[in-house]
Amino acid sequence: MRDPGIDPEIERIRQIYHEDVLTHRCRDVILLGRKCAPQILYTFLGFELKMGSTRLSCPDMSTARYLKVFAELGMKKVNIPYDLSRLPLLVTGLEHSLHRIKEHLLERDLNSTRHAAALRRIYARIRSRLPEG
After folding, report:
1. 79: β partners
2. Strand ordering across the sheet containing 54-58
3. Are 85 and 70 in contact (CB under 8 A)?
């Protein structure tokens, strides 16, 4: 089912990734590979992204936030720009789009089971629009 409120946000995520990430020098980062509820942890050595029982060290908060978006979507692998100074702007756009998708879904007033299923379908659509690695 297509949604006029959600589809533009999916396209925006795709556009940010394709045009602002993949067009520059990048490196691959391996993620959990399934939808999860990642958490950013602050440690003495920096930041970590906790995905289930897996932890991934991150040099700064922007990197952790960027990887958190894609871990939540369930990506197996994601590209991250070498130039980390670009990440704060990129992650703001990605997080905003993901937040808007969740808001539109909440407006549907679904029970928890249907809400979770709809969110899984939306995340699968996003993953299908993004190349992994």
Report:
1. 28
2. 39-43, 46-51, 54-58
3. no
